[in-house]
């Protein structure tokens, strides 16, 4: 590198540019440049900042490398990319998978039925979905709690009343709430997809406790959730063949929507930001050329005073 | 250049017309920009959006 720079620049590196060189190099108009103390402080800060950054990076990498779990392979999600919206047909199928399979154990407590309107369901369909569940409401005029059919404003019902009940029903393991699971797990939807389709028999030497299964993508390998997605485990209303990988893909897309319902908005905002900032960049470039035109075309002439 | 001079004389010289031109310009710019951006977004994501599949589920 240094040799290449030396060959290209040659003797110019050695040439003195007088006072202008250091000024330009240090972005300063002082002719002396930086003082010793300032140099010392700034270089210490730089070395410390760089060192801490490198340490954090190394720690992160070593933690990733030291785990025993398999890293999920990257899948070509069709909402990945600067301008790519959700595939809403896939979100709808994913909701169907959640409803028919995942809902038995996992809650989705931060998603309300009204959130489905205009995303995966029409308003009438979402109302029908809500009406299928019974919601505890109250107190009424006599102070009693009662059950009523769900409304659009209700949140999706949880399968267990509380965490202890969920643990008691699942060998002590708590099925996590799925509302933000895709944002909350390393690997995101790649991880969900790999986990749902990655169940294998435990290799020799791995001891599983009662009710546990082996999944190489789960940290530690021993997961209390059994494999749930088999071909035809759910049924799609749009007639898509319900293979295990199709269901895993759709439910991962749906869970990404649950975690980031604003993704479509953001993609649209990207397009708008690129448009606005390219216009502003053109204006700024013009202004720069305009302001510098006098400086660039200026000529300085020294007219020595003649000694008489 | 004469267009610029006319514009200058008719609109930019008087504060009232200048402000009016600014407000009207902002309105039309915003509308064009918004509609244009949404059109680009919907073209890029044709077939994936809810508006592309909702006819299947509406009575």
UniProtKB/TrEMBL annotation, chain A:
UniProt entry tagged with the keyword Cytoplasm: no
Stated family: Belongs to the cytochrome c family.
Pfam families: Cytochrom_C1
Name the record gives this protein: Iso-1-cytochrome c
Annotated SUPFAM superfamilies: Cytochrome c, Cytochrome c1 subunit of cytochrome bc1 complex (Ubiquinol-cytochrome c reductase), transmembrane anchor
Function recorded in the entry: Electron carrier protein. The oxidized form of the cytochrome c heme group can accept an electron from the heme group of the cytochrome c1 subunit of cytochrome reductase. Cytochrome c then transfers this electron to the cytochrome oxidase complex, the final protein carrier in the mitochondrial electron-transport chain.
Superkingdom, taxonomy of origin: Eukaryota
Transmembrane segments annotated in the record for this chain: 268-287
Keyword terms: Electron transport, Heme, Iron, Membrane, Metal-binding, Mitochondrion, Mitochondrion inner membrane, Respiratory chain, Transmembrane, Transmembrane helix, Transport
Subcellular compartments: Mitochondrion inner membrane
Residue span(s) of domain Cytochrome c: 89-259
PROSITE patterns: CYTC
PANTHER family reported for this sequence: CYTOCHROME C1 (PTHR10266), CYTOCHROME C1, HEME PROTEIN, MITOCHONDRIAL (PTHR10266:SF3)
UniProt cross-references to InterPro entries, sorted A to Z: Cyt_c-like_dom (IPR009056), Cyt_c-like_dom_sf (IPR036909), Cyt_c1 (IPR002326), Cyt_c1_TM_anchor_C (IPR021157)
Automatic annotation (TrEMBL), chain B:
Recorded superkingdom: Eukaryota
Sorted UniProt keywords: Electron transport, Membrane, Mitochondrion, Mitochondrion inner membrane, Respiratory chain, Transmembrane, Transmembrane helix, Transport
Annotated membrane topology: Single-pass membrane protein
Primary site of residence: mitochondrion
Subcellular location as annotated: Mitochondrion inner membrane
Subunit structure as annotated in this protein's UniProt entry: Component of the ubiquinol-cytochrome c oxidoreductase (cytochrome b-c1 complex, complex III, CIII), a multisubunit enzyme composed of 3 respiratory subunits cytochrome b, cytochrome c1 and Rieske protein, 2 core protein subunits, and additional low-molecular weight protein subunits.
Function in brief: Component of the ubiquinol-cytochrome c oxidoreductase, a multisubunit transmembrane complex that is part of the mitochondrial electron transport chain which drives oxidative phosphorylation. The complex plays an important role in the uptake of multiple carbon sources present in different host niches.
UniProt family annotation: Belongs to the UQCR10/QCR9 family.
UniProt protein name: Complex III subunit 9
Species: Plutella xylostella (Diamondback moth)
């Amino acid at each position: 590198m240094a040799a290449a720079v030396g060959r290209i620049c040659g003797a110019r590196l050695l040439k003195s540019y007088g006072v202008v060189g250091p000024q330009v190099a240090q972005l300063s108009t002082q002719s002396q440049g930086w003082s010793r103390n300032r140099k010392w402080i700034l270089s210490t800060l730089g070395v410390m900042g760089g060192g801490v950054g490198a340490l954090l990076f190394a720690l992160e990498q070593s933690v990733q490398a030291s785990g025993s779990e398999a890293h999920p392979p990257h899948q070509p999600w069709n909402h990945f990319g600067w301008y790519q919206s959700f595939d809403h047909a896939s979100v709808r199928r994913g909701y169907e998978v959640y409803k028919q399979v995942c809902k038995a154990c996992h809650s989705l407590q931060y998603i309300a039925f009204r959130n489905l309107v205009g995303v995966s369901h029409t308003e009438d369909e979402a109302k029908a979905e809500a009406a299928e569940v019974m919601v505890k409401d109250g107190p009424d005029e006599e102070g009693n709690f009662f059950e009523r059919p769900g409304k659009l404003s209700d949140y999706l019902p949880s399968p267990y009343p509380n965490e202890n009940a969920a643990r008691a029903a699942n060998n002590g393991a708590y099925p996590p709430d799925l509302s933000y699971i895709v944002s909350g797990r390393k690997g995101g939807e790649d991880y969900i997809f790999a986990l749902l389709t990655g169940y294998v028999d435990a290799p020799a030497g791995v001891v599983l406790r009662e009710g546990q299964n082996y999944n190489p993508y789960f940290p530690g390998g021993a997961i209390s959730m059994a494999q749930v997605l088999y071909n035809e485990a759910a049924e799609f209303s749009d007639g898509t063949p319900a293979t295990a990988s199709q269901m895993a893909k759709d439910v991962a897309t749906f869970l990404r929507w649950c975690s980031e319902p604003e993704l479509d908005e953001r993609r649209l905002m990207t397009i708008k930001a690129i448009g606005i900032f390219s216009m502003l960049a053109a204006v700024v470039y013009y202004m720069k050329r305009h302001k510098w035109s006098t400086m660039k075309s200026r000529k300085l002439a020294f007219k020595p005073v003649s000694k008489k | 250049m004469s267009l610029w001079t006319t514009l200058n004389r008719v609109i930019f010289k008087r504060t009232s017309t200048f402000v009016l031109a600014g407000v009207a310009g902002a309105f039309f710019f915003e509308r064009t920009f918004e509609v244009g951006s949404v059109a680009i977004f919907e073209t890029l994501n044709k077939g994936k959006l809810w508006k592309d599949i909702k006819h299947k589920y509406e009575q």
